[in-house]
Every structure is written in C-alpha cells, then in structure tokens.
Amino acid sequence: MSANNSTPLRCIGILHHPRKPESMTLAGQMAALAKARGCAAWLDSAWDERGITDRLGEEPSLDLLVTLGGDGTILRAARMGAPHHIPILGVKMGRLGFLAEVEPDNWLKPIQMVLAGQYWLERRLMLDVLLRRNGAAVDEHGSDLRFQALNEVVVSRGRLARIVRVSTWIDGDFLTTYTADGVIVATPTGSTGYALAAGGPILPPELRNILVAPIAPHLSLDRALVLSEGATVRLKVASDHQVVLSVDGQFDAEVQDGDTVEVTASNTSASFVRVRPPAYFYRNLMQRLKWNL
Which domain holds residue 166? Predict the structure, then answer.
C-alpha cells in the first residue's frame, strides 16, 4: 500500500473489451469526461497487447490504464503496465471482478475522484516464471520460455485424466513429490482463484508471500504451503503424457518429461488504483463469492 495521491492525472489509457460493445461505449464516455477535465485520453482494445506495449514505452506521461472487462482483462493490463510502473483501475464488466474497483453503472464519481488525484495505490506481488528444458531456458525452436504472473502458475495434466508427478524443491532443498492433477504456485492475488478452489488459504493482497497448493493430490502432501517472498520454487515434471504449464490462465506451454519450472517473486509489482478504504478486500471477497447471503 502507498500513501494517498493528490496530483491530478495528465493522461490515461482506456482499454475496452473487443467482445463487449457496451465497454466501447463506456470507454468513450470516460474519455470525454477526462478530456473535459484537462486530462488527455486514448482508447484501445485490451487485446492489442503489442500495440499497447509499444505505446506504453513511448508515452512517459501516461498516469493510468483503465480497463473495461473482467479479471482477465485486468490481468493482461497489469502485466503490460507493471514494467512501466503504470497503475490499473478496473471497471467490472465480467462475472466475478475480484480485482475491479468500479461498477459500470456507478462509475462517474469514482472516475472523477481518480482524475482529481483522490486515490491510493495498492501494490501486489508478481511472479517470474522460467521453463527449463535440457538445462536451458529455451524450447526446441529457440523461443525464450519466460513468463510473468499476477495470479498463479499451474503445472497440470493435459487432456487425459491421468496424474502427474511433480518433484518440488524450495530454495534448493527437496520438499516432496506431488502425485496429483497438478501443482499451483500463486500470489496473494491468486489465492482467491484456482488456489482457493484447490483448498488453499485466502491471503490478503498486501502480503508478499508465495503459495504452493497441490490439485487433487493422491497419497502425497495434501496441504498448501505459504512461503516467504524470497523463496524459489522449482518443479520437475515426470510424466509419459501431456503436461501443461499455464500462466494466469492466459499463456500455455507444453511441459515435457524432465522439464523444470522455476518460480520466484518478481522485482516488478502490479499497482491498482483504489478509492475505497483499505478494508474493502474482505467485504469484496464475501460479496463476490456470495458467502454473506
């Protein structure tokens, strides 16, 4: 968490969902409001990662990315914005919206507050992911198999309903071999996603811990582990069938027998603009999961 901001914004980027026409309409309304208040604004599709990434590198005055979509849209924007230290403001236009701050039918006042600099920043841990094959961080085509995650890294079985064996080391010391559908390595942000469904604990977003949770373990360690930020997790796969590495549910890579996946805390953090009090997380969690009914 960082201190409240007090400087009005100079320039914002608004990313709409290409398959939600209503998000494009709302993006136009937000851009018009920003420009009326002396803040430059540009619009783009949230799926245009190459174009957005190029633009972020060329516009040092950009103060904020506003996303109109679901958590997937926010995850994508956070990965693009984090290297440039650009915070994200999520407008919920998906189903759950754990990361979103603004509701689409009640957006005017929050956007006015943000444009005026009346907000605080929430910084969240990200993970660096490295897939090694034959000791090198490249695949057979020479592609660099490095990824960054805000939610989680998952090593799991592919299409066949067969277990995989994932030998796991923490800081170089052998922990165990999971016999399971897979293993999740998550951030506190990801603790409310797949890791929660797999029986893991809920970690508040300000923590900087790494969570390791097996998926449907069979006769092996069946408890989630909470590690320190500085931990290094290494997973080695043993399987005679398809295994997949999934990053934030948006990037997939095939994992071969003997490959290793190394996960560490990233030096880059994702920043989110908040206008609600810091205790919003627990109320939001109960509402999104409908546990307060």
Answer: 127-265
pTM > 0.85: yes or no: yes
Known catalytic residue: 44?
Answer: no
The model's pLDDT over 43-100, given as tens digits with 9 standing for 90+, comes to 999 999 999 999 998 877 899 999 999 999 999 999 999 999 999 999 998 776 789 9
Q: How far out from the chain centre does Cα 244 lie?
A: 18
Q: Could you read off the pLDDT of 200-216 as tens digits, one per residue?
A: 999 999 999 999 999 99
71, 181, 248, 259: which one is catalytic? Answer: 71
Half-sphere exposure of 3 (CA within 13 A, CB side): 2
Task: List beta partners, residue 219.
Answer: none
Q: Kindly state whether residue 6 falls inside one of the protein's structural domains.
A: no
Residue pointed to by tokens 């693009």: 80
**Statement to judge: residues 251 and 143 lie in one domain:** yes
Strand order in the sheet with 40-45: 40-45, 11-16, 64-69, 88-92, 270-274, 120-124
